[in-house]
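Continuing from the previous page...

OK, I double-checked the sequence for Trace amine-associated receptor against my notes and this is the correct one:
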Amino acid sequence: ICEPLHYPTKVTKRRVQNCVCFCWILSAIFRIFLLYDHLEKPGSSNSCLGECVVIINYAAGVADLVFTFIIPILCIIVLYLRVFVVALSQARAMRSRVAASTTRRS
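Thanks. Re-ran it with the corrected sequence; updated structure tokens here:
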């Protein structure tokens, strides 16, 4: 949206594949970090046979909230605002061009 003529050179198939792989790898590492105690001692928090309980401490819960909810939401809001500002400026530029061309005709 910001630079449409440069889009094919900036966003290539290889770059998108790398970004998607990076996100999945980062997500897997983060989940392993959060579930490390559970993976190290599986079943330590189970009270009966067949129960699957995962207990996460307070710091890990806050980190989970921040890294998997708050930061992504903030990124989405910032990117949408950026697109909105660019679209608004393009709409204003088009209106001024239309207004200038109608003034010249009259």
